[in-house]
Amino acid sequence: MPTHGTSLTGELRELATRLATEAGTIALEGRIATRRLTGGTKSSRTDIVTEFDRAAEAHIVAELRRVRPDDAIVGEEGTDQAGTSGVAWLIDPIDGTTNFVYDLPAWACSIGASIGGEMVVGAVNAPALGELYVAERGRGARRNDEPIGVSGERDLSLALVGTGFAYGAAARVDQARVVAELIGRVRDIRRLGSAAFDLCMVACGRLDVYFERHLNAWDAAAGTLIASEAGATLSDFTGGPGRPDELLAATPAVHAAFVRLLDDINAA
Ligand code: LIP
Q: For ligand 1, what atom is nearest to the CA of residue 164?
């Protein structure tokens, strides 16, 4: 079984970086060239998939199969390939598809790679903003190849908090209840529209906290590694291990206070 922290993780980092860049370019150039996007919906009428979600994933998968044919691959748009190498890829070709369709810039191509089930590389490319976030386990996180780190905020009442909402209306109503109860106890709320991008915002200190429920593994895989390598504390809403269904990332000094706040308002 390969181990991380070796030249293998360096190879995976370079591959994830290249493919996130190439797939992001495919999506961005397609968006610019296409006035009226075509596509369909998935879990609900608002859960959109476009031709460029599919084209970006197809490019990533074709390259992974060419360069590393024995790796496992799971992608949001349907790729589900078993592997024998111990390396597994989690792909969200366009995270923040609603923003992409509405021509809002906060969307990203997110690619994560794990070895033996442990995430070791993450790349999140936000091409409409010209920002590429990359992390390799144990080697920090970078934006456009410059080191990044979480904010130094220590006062929860001054924390800028990001969140998001599910595609199901009933879940969204409950999530909005939580936001309504916490908004008076933090600086403000931001709903940027892409979990991968939100996690990178915590990583670089533009958000102090990000929390969300009902994500998929591909939404969060790369971004959680980038946030963690940038110094964020990752957990679920109770302070236990984070997971896509209940994810919290925070600059360390306000993490425990935010967990207490979520408990106070019965968010979990
Ligand atoms: C999106 C997430 C976002 C969430 C949206 C949606 P998608 O993923 O990144 O955080 O609030 O509802 O799930 O569907 O654009 O890949």
A: 11
